[in-house]
Each structure stands twice: as structure tokens, then as C-alpha cells.
């Protein structure tokens, strides 16, 4: 994954373009990006389903993208606020204030 880091109010915000990983699912991108950021093997992370159902996440994102439906999905995983939006952006903020929400 190609992770770009920006700074917002003295905190790093890591961005991944999901459109660059068309052969990978959203759940795969979340897990591998956080593994890369924390220098850990993906198998050493908590199971993603402790935070969100991976199949539901992948189905939601794929369907919303196919139908050009605007969306924003946020949840916490491995100490990161995770946000996925319709513009193909995965944003990871360490210690961020994400809550488990979805909007369409």
C-alpha cells in the first residue's frame, strides 16, 4: 500500500488511495495499512471483526462505489481512527476520535 502522511494539528494523518488497490478489498487495505504503519505482521493485529464485520465492510464499500453513492464510514481499529469515503480515500489517524458510524 502506498501510504501518504500529512499533518493536521500536530498529529499525523495517513492516507491511502483505495482506487490504487482495485484488486484488494477495503478490509484488506485497512489491515495491511495499519500493519505497515505499526511495523507488524497483519497476523499479529487484532482480528478486524473485533471492530467491524470485514465482509459487511467490503460489501458496503463495493456496492456504494458501483452505484456512485456518497458515503463515509468510520470506526476504530488498533488504536487508529479509520475513515473510508466515497472518493476512494482510506484515512488513518492514530488515537483519533472515530466512532462506529456509517452515512449514506
UniProtKB/TrEMBL annotation:
Halobacterial output domain span: 23-94
InterPro entries: HalOD1 (IPR040624)
Superkingdom per UniProt: Archaea
Protein name as it appears in the record: HalOD1 output domain-containing protein
Organism encoding this protein: Halorubrum yunnanense
Lineage, highest ranks first: Archaea, Methanobacteriati, Methanobacteriota, Stenosarchaea group, Halobacteria
